[in-house]
Design goal:
Length: 314
């Protein structure tokens, strides 16, 4: 039987060629080569949880494969890492301190890391075995949260959880801790995320918008995960097992914005982030947001921001 905690970090770390060594109650490793400069600290906690932190500066483009197991994840991320995270993307991601909560699924993921990207992250992932330590109400909420489309947290909660998660690792201002201290901190973060989810769910049920809100979050998540495709509304509706008419109507009702406008805006805002960060050509950015023709991308960008993409970052 495979080691589930291993699946949360080891296959990913091995892609960088990093060898982990024991350092107190943690595993740590680093590498610097032509592909990346990276350092990693991992805690394995009582067969219940893995806390992984990494700082990765990508030096050349590389394919990245990720494997996972079912579980509940709370993480704080740089903007580049958030863009790869399976959650609905915020309107404007911060350079760091973006906190996301989502359920892991037992299926492989693949993405492309590009030169110049910075992937900073601290992730707490609890396996379902941990849920037995929760009270019945929290346990039900944890399972419901895993089945929800992932979300980026609002500013107040994000600030608190970012501070909590960074304190667990020496990579981001904390220090190496013993396993018991890490577990207490990780459990505190997960319980705070569950409480936030419960409050949001109560508000949506009281307003009678629970199912609509879930559908909107699922649509936003799928748009984020397929940013490099020219995703049509029909394809999006089929993937979400609903009709285009219902999806578009619910999305406008919940957000005040049409789904088509949301997709276009999300692509342009992501393109602007990539251009501002530098390191990519306009054609590379265009492909990264699903525009195979630079001319079409340039027209869309100028329409959105009033300037050509070549003017950003100058």
């Amino acid at each position: 039987m495979r080691d589930q905690l291993d699946e949360l970090y080891r296959p990913q770390i091995e892609q960088y060629g990093i060898t982990l060594e024991e350092t107190g109650d943690a595993l740590a490793g680093a590498i610097s080569d032509d592909r990346s400069r990276a350092c990693v600290v991992v805690y394995r906690l009582e067969g219940l949880c893995a806390v992984t932190s990494h700082r990765i500066e990508v030096r050349r483009e590389m394919e990245f494969h990720e494997r996972s197991v079912p579980g509940l994840c709370v993480c704080t991320l740089s903007a580049d890492s958030l863009a790869l995270c399976p959650v609905a993307q915020p309107r404007r991601a911060a350079g760091a301190g973006n906190v996301a909560v989502f359920g892991h699924v037992d299926e492989p993921q693949q993405c492309k890391l590009r030169a110049g990207q910075v992937h900073d992250a601290v992730s707490v992932t609890f396996l379902p075995a941990w849920f037995s330590r929760l009270e019945e109400r929290e346990r039900r909420s944890a399972w419901e949260l895993i089945e929800e489309p992932g979300s980026a947290c609002d500013e107040d909660l994000a600030h608190m959880l970012d501070r909590c998660l960074r304190a667990l690792t020496p990579l981001f201002g904390g220090r190496l801790l013993d396993g018991a201290s890490v577990l207490r901190g990780a459990e505190g973060a997960a319980r705070a995320a569950i409480a936030w989810f419960e409050e949001r769910s109560r508000a949506e049920r009281a307003a009678g918008t629970r199912e609509q809100a879930r559908l909107v979050r699922a649509a936003e998540r799928l748009v984020a995960m397929r940013m490099d495709e020219m995703l049509t509304l029909d394809e999006l509706a089929r993937a979400l097992l609903t009709s285009r008419t219902r999806l578009c109507a619910v999305f406008r009702q919940e957000t005040g914005e049409s789904l088509g406008a949301y997709i276009r805006r999300s692509k342009m805002e992501r393109a602007r982030q990539l251009l501002e960060r530098g390191g990519l050509s306009v054609s590379e950015v265009a492909r990264g947001v699903g525009y195979p023709r630079v001319s079409s991308f340039t027209v869309a960008f100028e329409r959105a921001f009033g300037v050509p993409p070549s003017a950003i970052g100058e």
